[in-house]
Amino acid sequence: MNEAQSLQRAIDEPVHLAEYDPAWPARFKAERKRLLERFPAALIEVQHIGSTAIPGMPAKPIIDVMAGVASMAVADFLFEPILDHGYVTSVEFNAGLTDRRWFMRHANGRRTHHLHVVAYDGKLWRKRLAFRDALRTDAALAERYAALKRELALRHGTDREAYTRAKGEFIRCVCAS
Questions:
Q1: Does the 3-176 domain belong in CATH 3.30.200.20?
Q2: Number of helices (H) and strands (E), helices first, in the chain?
Q3: How far apart (Å, rounded) are the C-alpha atoms in residues 73 and 138?
Q4: Quick one: DSSP state of residue 104?
Q5: Are 45 and 120 in contact (CB under 8 A)?
Q6: d(C-alpha 142, C-alpha 95), whole Å
Q7: Helices 123-137 and 139-155: crossing angle, nearest 10°?
Q8: Closest by Cα among 42, 177, 169 to 118
Q9: Where are the domains of the chain?
Q10: pLDDT at 1 over 70
Q11: 141-142-143-146 Cα dihedral, nearest 10 degrees
Q12: Which residue in 67, 106, 131, 150 has the fewest CB atoms around it within 10 Å?
């Protein structure tokens, strides 16, 4: 499979949840180190977010990384250098985002990492960490989210955007409390 085929396969990859893998935190740490070595002056903080950051949580086996920068202007400045560092993205998709820039790494036709570059300690930064931390500390809440994710993966297995949108209300409720 060539690079173009691998990318297209990763883009079209269906929603598939894997059981929690204890190797996910190490994969995050390796990517965090790689990013901080490449962008030491620009990245204020790098955090593991998403379901792979929640012990025991089923997840799409894609490491979600959130990198905090001083402003969205810095995120835009990093856009091309991040692409040169092994990530890909959709310019059109990012044009519709006001609070983050989104990138993806892939290998062998599978997504391996999502990188969300956001304003450090801004609203989105705090919201994503609050959601992660709520799931890490409340086992019953985490189980409800896991059940929802399983149901939605069955319902929206071929539509990643619908799957993500369908989780939105649960996430909003957790972050509002």
A1: no
A2: 8, 4
A3: 36
A4: E
A5: yes
A6: 33
A7: 110
A8: 42
A9: 3-176
A10: no
A11: 130
A12: 150
Q: Tokens 């931390």, residue?
A: 133
pLDDT tens per residue across span 134-151: 999 999 999 999 999 999
H/E stretch holding 45 reads strand 45-49
Report the alpha-carbon distance of residue 50 to residue 52 in Å, rounded: 6
Place of tokens 């909003």: 172
Assess contact for 156 and 163: CB atoms under 8 A: yes
Amino acid making up residue 176: A
β-pairing, 101-107 vs 63-69, is: unpaired
- Report the 3 state secondary structure along 108-152: CCEEEEEEEEEECCCHHHHHHHHHHHHHHHCHHHHHHHHHHHHHH
Model confidence over 90-108: pLDDT tens digits? 888 899 999 999 999 988 8
Short-list 84, 75, 67, 61, CA closest to 31? 67
